[in-house]
Design a protein that fits this description.
about 400 residues, TIM Barrel
């Protein structure tokens, strides 16, 4: 039996993940106009559960309807959608795995057509093309920051009530938690900013509030950037300090990623990085020795041998998978049956230069596959990306063509 096929117990909760695969968050955009979950999400997560995933993390669920990152985001502020949330949780466990909901607030990374105003640690504008599409951010007051901490905790409690196994706090990819951590976007000089200890206070307060609002057996996970890959942003050295500071907070797991809207390392790595798989594995090796919390790396894994190698050397405890699961929803079952199995990820390029430069072609291609599975259909890995663009334009109109991130 390969290591990938073996169960793993999350020490903080005692929950058993039946194998070492974790479905990382992908933005499904399958919520209603009011932010409610739908039967399509139930169908989609049932498909992944039957495909053998060990632990599913949902796409980012917003904690504030007034701060949505994109059309179709699910928003959970209270228990009004509890019956559908319960159906979602049940579907995610059909194969015997666990399901966590990823909680998020976009902060300054919100499109103008959805949110006329954005909030952030500091009023730092975007530059270039993003300045045209993103709402202008204003700095949060201290009272507003404390209210946002309470929002995360309240939403976590609703997900426990709905039967989810845990939540994951999205602290990566340039969203609000990540903005507080970054010296580029957090230029405050009060209790919520300045040195690194004060910049990470927002995250630590959210972790503690979520734990206080839920039971001990409910998991609190975290997704962090190894680095922002942007001048003036979070560095690997700073993240190492944050990881150590959080190691005693009783987290179920930490997932490592990287990049922001302004420097999307998680979407467009160098060719040499693609070839070696596991984009952020080197950082995981660096922090592993001083970390007791289970560690997950997402980004780049394509083959069973690479996944098992990362597990066998102890660099990670779970392997994070995202886009491969959009094309091959039964990939975990295939990997368990055949440790040498590898997926083919065909490039999602139209061949039309100005279209591909929009930066959305691949994202929408994978999003279309999620929508197909939500409709009970099989994904089409080799469907032409122009079909994805056409379907997206039909659904959201031209205003929806803003730079986005899964």
């Amino acid at each position: 039996m390969s290591t990938l096929a073996t169960p793993f117990t999350l020490p903080a909760t005692g929950q058993v993940v039946p194998n070492r695969t974790l479905k990382s968050a992908m933005s499904e955009t399958l919520g209603t106009a009011t932010g409610a979950p739908t039967d399509a999400l139930v169908e989609l997560y049932g498909r992944w559960a039957r495909g053998g995933i060990g632990l599913s993390v949902t796409g980012n669920v917003m904690v504030d309807f007034g701060a949505r990152g994109e059309p179709g985001n699910v928003v959970v502020e209270d228990d009004r959608d509890l019956p559908m949330l319960r159906k979602w949780a049940e579907a995610g466990k059909l194969g015997g795995g666990l399901i966590y909901a990823q909680l998020n607030h976009p902060g300054r990374q919100v499109p103008r057509f959805l949110n006329p105003e954005a909030v952030a640690p500091s009023a730092v504008p975007f530059k270039g093309v993003l300045a045209q599409s993103m709402a202008t951010a204003r700095a949060l007051t201290s009272d507003e920051i404390e209210a946002l901490v309470a929002r995360f905790a309240r939403t976590a409690a609703v997900f426990e009530q709905a039967g989810f196994d845990g939540i994951q706090i999205h602290g990566a990819h340039g969203y609000l938690v990540s903005q507080f951590l970054s010296p580029h976007t957090n230029r405050r000089d009060d209790a919520w900013g300045g040195d690194l200890e004060r910049r990470r206070r927002f995250l630590i307060e959210i972790v503690r509030a979520c734990k206080a609002s839920t039971s001990p057996g409910f998991g609190i996970g975290l997704k962090l950037n190894s680095a922002d890959f942007k001048r003036g942003g979070i560095t690997e050295e700073e993240t190492q300090g944050t990881v150590k500071a959080l190691d005693g907070e009783g987290l179920a797991f930490m997932e490592v990623s990287g990049g922001t809207y302004e420097a999307p390392a998680m979407v467009s790595p160098r060719q040499s990085t693609r070839e070696r798989e596991a984009y952020f594995l080197e950082f995981a090796r660096t922090v592993r020795a001083s970390l007791s919390t289970p560690l997950v790396v997402t980004g780049g894994f394509r083959s069973g041998p690479a996944m098992n190698a990362a597990l066998d050397e102890g660099a990670v405890d779970l392997v994070g998978l995202a886009r491969p699961l959009a094309l091959y929803p039964d990939l975990p079952n295939r990997l368990v049956e055949d440790p040498s199995y590898a997926v083919d990820m065909p490039p999602a390029k139209t061949g039309i230069a100005f279209v591909d430069r929009l930066g959305m072609t691949e994202l929408l291609h994978y999003e279309l596959q999620l929508h197909r599975m939500g409709d009970g259909k099989d994904p089409k890995p080799r469907s032409h990306p122009l079909r994805s663009l056409a379907k997206y334009a039909w659904r959201n109109g031209l205003k929806g063509f803003k730079r986005r991130r899964a």
